[in-house]
Amino acid sequence: MQNSFDMTTLVFLALAVFVAWKLRSVLGQKTGSEQPPKDPFARRETPPMRPDQPGAPEAKRDNVIRLPGAANDPAATVVPAAERWKDIAPADSPIIAGIEAIVRQEQDFDPKGFLQGAKSAYETIVTAFARGDRKVLKGLLAKEVYDGFEQAITDREKRGEKAESSFVSIDKAEITAVDVKGKTAQVTIAFVSQLISVVRDAQGVVVDGSAEAVSEVNDIWTFSRQLGSRDPNWLLVATEAGA
Known about the structure:
Layout: H1 2-27, H2 57-62, H3 81-84, H4 94-105, H5 111-131, H6 134-138, H7 143-159, E1 162-181, E2 184-200, E3 206-209, E4 215-226, E5 235-241
């Protein structure tokens, strides 16, 4: 029994020596210069950087991207409305005052873009009236103006006449007045266009205008809209012949 115990003990001792030797060969020996173990979640201190070193604090501040017009952008400047719209009217004119009154209620209003849209509306309305297209006219005219256009179309149809209008060019579209009362804005525009216009009777005979001659037409139209409305359309509320 004693011999069996001694043999078992010797076997375990031999195994222990072997394991210790393997660990030493893999991990090596301490020399006294080892670095202490590091905590992977510990906060690391950033070493100080030289002013001339890339990525120094001053350089980092220079890399901040400033949005155009931001409050912290020293180059951002507010352009006065009169300067932005100097091509529309003189700075001290009632027209600029009216535009500013619209912008105070609708900041995205752009008089230059408005003029382009008005020119398109002018051409659309004139040609729709010639064709007798009531559906198109109804969406672009205020009720009172539509009623007048519709009556003229009806009278023409009763006479058996047909009208034709073709634009050669729109030479001018100029804002002549802007009026804002409460939420209602009105913008008056003077148009000068080159137009071929003719009216034929039931037999095709020309009774008014010419199918070939180009005539200069002067019109003064007023468009209106309720500011703040979800409907973006400006409606034609008044027409008159220009000088």
